[in-house]
Write a structure and sequence with these properties.
Strand content: 35-45%
Structural class: mainly beta
CATH topology of the domain at 1-170: Immunoglobulin-like
Strand order of the largest sheet: 41-43-45-47-49-51-53-55-57-63-58
CATH architecture of the domain at 1-170: Sandwich
CATH class of the domain at 1-170: Mainly Beta
Number of strands: 63
Number of helices: 0
Radius of gyration: 28 Å
Helix content: under 10%
Distance between the termini: 70 Å
Length: 759
């Protein structure tokens, strides 16, 4: 135990407090203690009064250790990023390795200072830290990330030798009143601590303070976690802080448990937007073996800067587990709507059961519907894949702001053993001044504090935000109960908004009872709902809004009602119903082949889907990265194969063939089977065909047609070979650079420049 005082002389900025450790010889879990600051002099304030020291045990049986390196989030104003490198056991020989920073979306020289070097763990040592300097610039940018990569490891092995630091952007215009939020987290019992991310919506012109305290739910303080209270101070310009709460791992197999971090007493220049967060602790004490992995879906607002998906193992593995992980475009695009921030591999050390993967979000001003990208696990080592694809759905927030939007909350359903259930509260449009709403749970057939934890609080939407999540803890018992139980979430006390839907029902599916005999009913509202299904068959219904249906694993029925609805079709038994004229609707198909049902206008292929066919409407059909077969059917259709070498048929009607992705004469050449020069049109994306900057008709003289057509004159950009039917682009127009084939037209139709339009 140590007490004392520090004095910073004028000009000094850093001091060190050294606390003696008492090493033992008993193998233990990681342990920790705090250093607490108090009583600052009148010319200083305390920004963060608690520092947590985590002691990594070095008494496990020696052998060949496994090296791990952490992923974490820092504020751009933090000045440095600290990577922690640990060994899972001591070695009797020295362990050495090299390290070096790697550019990600953050770039050395602009966002951080490049660093490289070597580490040496003496026999018995198990932890080292590498600190990298962060550059706090004034450029307005999205959250970015860079890596620290380990290499040339001797006397040890690693499952994943790359750590990622996500730099939270802080370059928005400073404001006089910031809104404070804290994010929910999912951790496993072996992780030693839970990190809560506390965020401001914008940097403040003055310091912002807020108090915090943990609160027990199904996890007991000082048994499952250490109770913690304190305060945070955000210096002017800072936007993110971390509150680290110690976890107390046990050896008894348990259900998922949770506790809260509750914020209070913000300074006068700040308000609470979301003042509580739930930490869900996934147990790691089930008998070890070959685990099954699942990855969780996410619903986020475009203003959130980042989104996190969670990978969970159903049991630990004694030898470690790795997966490759990647974000995949669906309707949201990489580097236009989201960013892959972390390296493409995740690793579970022996005993671990939870990992998170962070993606950046780009908040643009384009008016868009809800969009989504997928996060996919592949190449498992030491585990098998259960649900290996997560959908990250981004709520559209680009409609014109209004003074008093309408609030809605939709019904939800989930299995009892998930540990929590999320209610999505939405606005029909962004608020131009911010809005807030109170919420409270009420018992139905489910009993509070027996089936779920009673939850109350206030949500605040910042200007521009249209969706927020309320997470309620579920209590997973071992009793066989009614297959379905329910409780409600009630809204009240809206400020700068009206309440359209005042309550929503949560259906809890008992995991000890037999599977439900009938589909689970999940009803939406008159707002823009994002409805999430269960692992069973669901009956999902929307209403007048622009609704998104994610049915999940069962054979689901989905009915959108009015509005521009989006249906995710993943199982052969999924069905959807649309009335004639009820919006401009979209099906996202993951099936090998899918034909659009009645009254749906748009089809997007995703995942491993290969074939898409339209209906009698004027369809828009878009491919994925596979070699697709697209058929418009009747109607005037718009067909875009995207990447891959696709076979595209317009069918009857005046059709549009779109070329919008980077050209590649080997992997991205489409076959157009039925181009009709009288009715059909080829559309060229000017971001790809860069010589055509202006939209509309292509300039005269830029199209060359003939046997073996080549570029000669400096403006011969489009070349059509009337022998092979190949259509090519020559970027320099004179043949010095190679022309790139991007399409082949069956039947050699007599193309002219009038058949092309630049978009």
């Amino acid at each position: 135990h140590l007490t004392g005082s520090l004095m910073f002389a004028p000009g000094e900025m850093v001091k060190t407090v050294r606390v003696s450790l008492l090493g033992g010889t008993t193998a233990e879990v990681a342990e920790n203690f705090f250093l607490v600051l108090s009583a600052p002099s009148a010319n200083a304030t305390i920004a963060d009064s608690f520092g947590l020291a985590t002691i990594i045990d070095n008494d496990a049986p020696s052998g060949t250790p496994v090296v791990s390196i952490n992923d974490f989030v820092v504020d751009e104003a933090s000045k440095e990023a600290a990577f922690v490198i640990t060994l899972d056991r001591p070695s009797t020989s020295a362990v050495t390795m090299n390290y070096a920073t790697q550019n990600g979306t953050a770039v050395a020289g602009a966002d951080f200072v490049a660093k490289s070097g070597s580490l040496s763990f003496a026999p018995g040592e198990t932890a080292k830290t590498v600190k990298v300097t962060i550059t706090n610039d004034a450029a307005f940018e999205a959250s970015e990330a860079f890596n620290l990569a380990l290499s040339a490891i001797t006397n040890a092995t690693t499952l994943d030798g790359v750590g990622t630091s996500t730099i939270f952007e802080n370059d928005a215009v400073a404001v006089g009143n910031s809104r404070i939020s804290v994010d929910d987290v999912v951790v496993d019992e072996s992780q030693t601590y839970a990190d809560f991310l506390v965020r401001l919506d914008a940097p403040n012109t003055a310091a912002v303070t807020v108090n915090y305290a943990t609160s027990a739910n199904t996890a007991a303080f000082n048994s499952d976690y250490l109770h913690l209270t304190g305060s945070l101070m955000f210096a002017p310009g800072e936007m993110v802080k971390t509150v680290r709460v110690s976890l107390l791992g046990g050896t008894t197999a348990e259900v998922a448990e949770s506790f809260q971090l509750v914020l209070s007493s913000p300074s006068a220049n700040a308000t609470l937007a979301d003042g509580s967060a739930l930490a869900t602790i996934i147990d790691n004490d089930a008998p070890s073996g070959i685990p099954v992995a699942r990855i969780t879906d996410a619903v986020v607002d475009e203003t959130d800067q980042t989104t996190t998906v969670t990978v969970i193992l159903n049991k630990p593995n004694t030898t470690g587990v790795t997966f490759d992980v990647a974000g995949q475009n669906v309707t949201a695009g990489n580097n236009s709507d989201f960013r892959n921030l972390q390296i493409g591999k995740i690793a579970f050390a022996p005993g671990e059961t939870v990992k998170t993967v962070i993606f950046g979000l780009l908040n643009d001003t384009r008016v868009e519907e809800a969009e989504l990208f997928d996060v996919v696990l592949t190449n498992p080592v030491g585990a098998t894949l259960g649900d290996a694809r997560a959908h990250a759905i981004i709520a559209g927030n680009d409609n014109a702001a209004v003074a008093s939007p309408v609030l809605h909350v939709a019904n939800v359903a989930t299995s009892e053993d998930k540990g929590y259930i999320d209610f999505l509260v939405t606005l029909t449009a962004p608020s131009n001044s911010g809005t807030s709403i109170n919420y409270s749970t009420a018992a139905g057939t489910a009993v509070f504090n027996s089936d779920y934890i009673h939850t109350t609080g206030t949500l605040a939407f910042i200007p521009g935000e249209v969706s927020k999540t309320i997470r309620v803890t579920l209590i997973d018992d071992t009793s066989v109960e009614a297959s379905l139980e329910n409780f409600t979430l009630n809204l009240s006390g809206a400020v700068n908004a009206t309440i359209g839907t005042a309550s929503a029902t949560a259906t809890i599916i008992d995991n000890e009872a037999a599977a439900p005999a009938a589909p689970i009913a999940i009803a939406g509202t008159a707002g823009n709902d994002i409805l999430q299904g269960t692992q069973f068959a669901d009956a999902m219904t929307g209403a007048a809004g622009n609704d998104t249906f994610n049915g999940g694993e069962g054979n689901d029925s989905m009915a959108g009602g009015g509005g521009n609805d989006i249906y995710l079709v993943e199982n052969a038994g999924d069905t959807y119903t649309e009335a004639a004229g009820a919006g401009n609707d979209l099906v996202i198909s993951y099936l090998a082949a899918h034909t659009l049902g009645a009254n749906v206008e748009r089809l997007q292929l995703a995942g491993t889907a290969t074939t898409g066919t339209g209906n009698s409407l004027n369809n828009t059909i878009t491919g994925n990265t596979r070699n697709n077969t697209l058929n418009g059917g009747t109607g005037s259709d718009t067909l875009d194969g995207a990447t891959g070498s696709d076979t595209i048929s317009g069918g009857a009607g005046a059709d549009f063939f779109v070329f919008s992705t980077a050209l590649n004469a080997t992997t991205n050449v489409d076959i157009v089977t039925d181009f009709n020069v009288i009715d059909d049109t080829i559309r060229l994306e000017n971001a790809v065909f860069t010589q055509f900057a202006a939209t509309g008709a292509i300039p005269a003289g830029t199209f060359v047609s003939g046997a073996g057509a080549v570029a000669l004159d400096g403006n011969d950009f489009l070349l059509y070979d009337t022998v092979t039917g190949n259509l090519s682009y020559d970027a320099d127009g004179n043949g010095v650079g190679a022309q790139v084939v991007f399409a082949s037209l069956t039947g050699i139709p007599a193309l002219t420049s009038a058949d092309f339009v630049v978009i």
